[in-house]
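Students often ask why inverse folding is considered easier than folding. One informal answer: many sequences map to the same fold, so there is more than one right answer. In these notes we will look at a single instance of the problem. The structure comes first.
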């Protein structure tokens, strides 16, 4: 987990605390990552995928639900593809329900001071122990 991962994750947690979403361009511009969205969209998707996997594997809500396509207020398909491939929700649950549940759960989880204090900043032990079993 490099600095870009940590910066993007921290920005998404801040969005969750506020209960707001931002488009990908705004997230890249304000999270101080060292890449440009216009040059490499795949880097952002890679990091968002890793963040989704990290949060899910640690039993936390999927904060990447707050990262949206410009003008839609909805995550891109990669988000729903990962959720479905990894059976996070039953197949009959529609995308709008997933968004609603994950945004509500993220808001509640990250507004809790203890959760914010204990889990916002990633320690070396947390990053070392993370092993993904996600299907990509």
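Output (designed amino acids):
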């Amino acid at each position: 987990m490099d600095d870009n991962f940590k910066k993007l994750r921290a920005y998404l947690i801040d969005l969750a605390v506020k209960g707001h979403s931002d488009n990908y361009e705004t997230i890249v511009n304000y999270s101080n990552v060292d890449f440009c969205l216009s040059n490499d969209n795949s880097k952002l998707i890679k990091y968002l995928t890793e963040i989704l996997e990290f949060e899910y594997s640690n039993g936390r809500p999927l904060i990447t639900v707050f990262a949206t396509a410009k003008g839609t207020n909805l995550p891109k398909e990669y988000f729903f593809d990962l959720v479905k491939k990894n059976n996070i929700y039953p197949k009959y649950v529609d995308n709008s329900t997933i968004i609603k549940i994950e945004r509500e759960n993220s808001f509640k989880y990250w507004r809790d001071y203890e959760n914010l204090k204990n889990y916002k900043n990633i320690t070396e032990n947390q990053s070392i122990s993370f092993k993904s079993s996600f299907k990509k």
